[in-house]
Amino acid sequence: MNQGRRFFMKQGGLALASVGLVGSAPSFLRRVVEAQGVTASVSGRRKTLIAIFQRGAVDGLNMVVPHGERAYYEQRPQIAIAQPRGGADSAIDLDGFFGLHPSMRPLKQFWDEKRLAIVHAVGSPDNTRSHFDAQDYMESATPGVKSTQDGWLNRYVQARPDQKATPFRSISMTQNLPRSMQGRAPAVAMQNLADFQLRAGAGARGVQGGFEDIYEQGVGDVLRGTGKETFEAVNFLKRVNPAQYRPENGAQYPTNQFGRALLQIAQLVKAGVGLEVAFSDVGGWDTHRGQGGARGQLANLLGQFAQGLTALVADLGPERMRDVVVLSMSEFGRTVRQNGTQGTDHGHANAMLVLGGAVRGGRVYGRWPGLRDEQLHEGRDLALTTDFRDVFGEVASKHLGAADLRKVFPGHDAGPAKFRGLFG
Predict the structure, then answer these.
(1) pLDDT in tens, 389-410
(2) Which of 129, 150, 161, 315 has the smallest C-beta neighbourhood within 10 Å, fewest atoms?
(3) Is 56 within 8 Å of 74 (Cβ atoms)?
(4) Helices 227-239 & 27-36, crossing angle to 10 degrees?
(5) 346 SS3 class
(6) Phi, psi at residue 144, to the nearest 5°?
(7) What percent of the chain has pLDDT over 70?
(8) What is the distance between the alpha carbons of residues 366 and 387, in angstroms, rounded to a whole number?
């Protein structure tokens, strides 16, 4: 067996999505459906985390605007978002101090329904301004340590063995397996369910059309006896046209890769095939020049981001969203001061969104450090008051049910004393 096949098998599994075809599904999928008590249109009651990485360092100060902070406007004379006054280019007030970028108006309904929470001044205690290092540290959840072998989402799966787990427990809708999902626990990356394109990490070959060969070379042993039924599941997928899927409740996903990823994650949730951890990312946030304020480069990205999240929530509906949490993250923030090209440079602390039916929303969590010169990190950045691992840890514990966070966040105490109260 060549290296590509060995790596795929070590990482484990595959992925499938379809609803409405339970009767013709292979025995493996029929048992999953029966065990979870689901139908073709209603998924089983399984807690699911959807992690979304905003790669490139989103400007959290214009995403979640501190419009009550005078220094914000002094530091950003051209790109600041205007205080809430009801106009189309004004911040959307949340609590009298913070507001959403006007392009994110669709998310205000979730705030009002107390399903959307925000954590501000959150990020990594490591001071790196390197995209590569900062993303690596956030996905491994070991800031400053480059030797960590696995990602935090993979360690979560490792820490919670599940004898009833399916090959669909941990899925990334990306070309390559993200750092956060790499490790000993099975995980799969793919971009398109219809094409069944799989990538088991950087450098691994796709396995479309080649699964039969892998199966013949001993996949049954590697997958601990599930090889035959996994093979059935692959063939089942080949007979299904995921393009037939139609979002519910008027959901309209953006017509880009991010929108397609969220749409397909919704398919997997509805299919009731045991999805527990899903991942997607969206790039373009490195706005060094011409960032814009209420309109322009960043505004367009935030609009697509909000449209994607709004469509996902609408598509899944309130009942399913009670068991789903969406968590956004970005490697670091942007400088408080705008630069000479009306953009922002690499910064430090940032903002995270936490969205779900069980979230104690309608609040901005975390201590606000202020934006006056003497309050800034290294005289230029939003200071850190919440370690990102404490947010990850609270989601892993309170939503997914992780019992021992030391196994998920080595070298860091992410216990209840550090939780912000995001869940009741």
Answers:
(1) 999 999 999 999 999 999 999 9
(2) 161
(3) no
(4) 90
(5) strand
(6) 85, -5
(7) 78
(8) 10
